[in-house]
Amino acid sequence: MPSRTAGRAAGRAAGRRTGLGWLWLPLGLCALFLYLPILVLVAMSFNGGGSAYRWDGFSFRWYAELARDSDLIEAVVTSLGIATGATAIATVLGTLLAVGLARHTRSKMLEAAAMAPAILPDLVLAIGLLAFFYMAGIPKSALTILLAHAAFGTAFVVAVVRARLAGSDAALEEASRDLGAGGFSTFVLVTLPSIAPAVVAGALLVFTLSLDEFVIAYFTAGPTTETLPITVYAMVRTGVTPEINALATVLVLISVTVVVVAARAVRRTEKS
Amino acid sequence: MPTRSHGGLGARLRRGVEPAVLLGPGLLFYAVLVGVPVGLVTGYMFARRGRFGGVEWELSLDNFSRVTDSVYLEVFRESLGLALVATVISLAIGYPTAYAIAKLPPRWRTVALVLVVVPFWTNFLIRVYAWIVLLNSQGVLNDVLVGLGVVDERFTLLYTPGAVVVGLVYSYLPLMILPLYAAIEKIDDELLEASTDLGAGRVRTFLGVQLPLTLPGVVTGSILVFVPSLGNFVVPELLGGGKTVMVGNLIRDQFLKAQDWPFGSVLAMMVVVLLVLLFLGQAWVTRRVEGGARA
Amino acid sequence: MTQSTTPGVLLEVREASRSFGHVRALDSVSLTIAENEFFALLGPSGCGKTTLLRSIAGFEHPDSGAILLGGRDLLALPPNKRPVNLMFQSYALFPHLSVASNVAYGLKREKLPKAEVTQRVAEVLDTVGLQTMADRRPAQLSGGQRQRVALARAIVKRPRLLLLDEPLSALDRKVRAEMQLELKRLQHEVGITFVVVTHDQEEAMSMADRIAVLAEGRVQQVASPLELYRHPANLFVADFIGTSNLLAGPSDRERLMVRPEDARLVTPGEGTLSGTVLDTQFQGGTSTVAVEVSTLAKPFLVCEPGATAAVRGTEVGLVWDHSVVVGEGLA
Ligand SMILES: Nc1ncnc2c1ncn2[C@@H]1O[C@H](COP(=O)(O)OP(=O)(O)O)[C@@H](O)[C@H]1O
Ligand SMILES: [Mg+2]
Hints:
The complex is a heterotrimer.
Chain A: H1 2-18, H2 24-44, H3 61-68, H4 70-104, H5 108-119, H6 122-135, H7 142-167, H8 171-178, H9 183-212, H10 215-220, H11 228-238, H12 242-271
Helix pairs in contact in A: 2-12, 3-12, 4-7, 4-9, 4-11, 5-7, 7-9, 8-9, 9-12
Chain B: H1 9-44, E1 48-49, E2 55-56, H2 62-66, H3 70-103, H4 106-121, H5 124-135, H6 140-147, H7 161-186, H8 189-197, H9 202-231, H10 234-239, H11 247-256, H12 261-290
Antiparallel strand pairs in B: 1-2
Chain C: E1 9-20, E2 23-34, E3 38-42, H1 49-57, E4 64-69, E5 72-73, E6 84-87, H2 99-109, H3 114-127, H4 143-155, E7 161-165, H5 173-190, E8 193-198, H6 201-207, E9 210-215, E10 218-223, H7 225-230, H8 235-240, E11 245-248, E12 254-258, E13 263-266, E14 273-282, E15 286-292, E16 300-305, E17 315-320, E18 324-327
Helix pairs in contact in C: 2-3, 2-4, 3-4
Adenosine-5'-diphosphate binds next to strand 2 and helix 1 of chain C.
């Protein structure tokens, strides 16, 4: 019966165009819930008055304060340093680990162990590291935070790269060896290019996670180390000023840029 | 004459060196920075508290018996309750949202997913702080409510258990939506059409086909919201005003204030055990639903 | 380690065995392959063909046995040191490299001068008819073109032995027939010994000089296509290659095999057997007549030239000019 299939096809096409129906409602409400607080912060950052809540005329005043806050700028520099170091270590170790797991193990246990730090509650890792640095007599500092972030960052790189390797053709590496390449050449010429998007994605992930990480940093920071989240925590606890609104706006802008750039980069590499 | 051969000595050596080079550094790094710390916390559970932090290595099981103290039982009850409420609300918001995203045209799907993760990538403390601004008695929400005449007087929503729940939901909602989306998106539309074709209505199809097939996603998302909620100490402190104490606050205080590391370790390991049990449950559900299709 | 081999023999597999758990993928396999031969490994899916090929290439290690190439022990060498190349079933073309870079990959590993690499790549692309595709990525090629790139990438290394795992299985029917001829032409042109794995008996028959039939990890018979067809070593080979009618044999463990084209229809009562015409099929050049014989479990098939005169439901007699006795058990 041709009319029936034609009817169904037409119905489906129509469904695709307008079929969301009532589903726009949860979508809209969820977007409102997720973005309203952020939008209020952004709006309030241009508040001319001294209250974080009460609107008192438009001004860039708090952005100027922000640029002059040397403690905050120092914290940003510390955080960027920690994030860079942690990303470098985690990307190298995580990539090697993921490739090693894919090539040389069938143990599900070992794979789970390699990703466990990403799943382990941050508070547990934080107190464990606190205990470890205390027992080993290592003074807490920016370096201990860096090592701690590298440890859980490695797990995220393993997870992302391992997923990419699972979807790739094992025959590619075999083909390389068959054509006369040794293990190292194969890694550099075939394995790395095929996992490059995942490695980049993993590195970006670790960098942003480290910049944002509070709990582990809070437990493993030295008495004078201040990362950005630790400073924000102190600011929020001691009193709410419009300066935080300005800082929040800058941070939101940065993360939006990073996410959009990352999403585009991944899409572009997937296409080619 | 058949020869037994597994490759020469050189070949065998190469096969041994490569795994060591690839796996060695990472596993060593983990052993020191994850294995030893978690081992220490495990060991602390059976030790006595040191006077100024740290522990005395004397075998003691007191830390376990303290858990049943009524003060702490009350904290557990309240934490589990709040975390559960936050999970259920996340699910109630997350499921329809994930469903709607899965039904969007492919181009818009990516955009919607990016929109879901963007707040998640903004600083966690800033996200919590935003609710202080919103919920404050001088805040925007009050402006709106008073302006609309819904309430007569300004009142504070801040520093209540409700504010804590809102903060937890806001913090972890993306972790609910993403696994739900993955599960919903995987369902073959023809399965739902088959159900309708066989005479089931919308509700029957949802309860009989859609929901069971997405159950692994529901469970994963729920774990990802529930467990971090239990361990969170920032939200109760900033939005609950310290009146609401969760397990996370208790653990933090044992380490940074009360200096009772052994008891803090017991509390932390309870969360870990709960997490492991929940993940075992999740694996079981996934196996049931996928019916060993991959085995 | 050099061990004596017959002159003219390129590859020798001696009693190679390989088990995966309880599965015996290779069970004491012995084979010799001559220089410049087009050799096929034929058998149903799961019989161990890929395992044997990968053992020769070096990606699988036999639990016992030996593999010699020109008298030299191959098993002592890692895959990248073996003068043998494998064309993968999935082709395994590097997606991030152009066609020319894919083909040049193996030559660069030999540290050849740049000019020579460029020249040999151009030559081999010419041979497989892909000169104009040199700068494309594998994703921009059709299935048949990808297959040619994979082939070019392997033969440009001038291996002593080229192994091809189901080289045509990913192609559609029409391209496949074209490529069968092409592979044969190429093998002749480059003078490299080919070992092709396939589960398609027609493909093996039309390309190979000699065929080894495998079943359950064991070699059933190694012979020329004609020999396999006319004198199958056992029931498995007889059944796997072509169509056959199987009748009671001289003993319990043997059967008599008659090929459909060796049989003819005669008037009832005059034949060795008699039965009723069940069905007739016209295939163009020939027709097949299925005859139901009361003593046989399956209909007896007769292949006649042109259109058949047989009518469904009529009684007929059956005679044949040629038959062979085949054993029942597997080797
Ligand atoms: N790496 C492996 N692990 C376990 N079993 C395997 C492996 N490789 C092959 N086998 C088993 O060995 C048998 C032969 O496989 P294979 O050589 O791939 O057969 P073919 O190529 O003839 O289809 C099959 O039963 C297959 O399941
Ligand atoms: Mg195979």
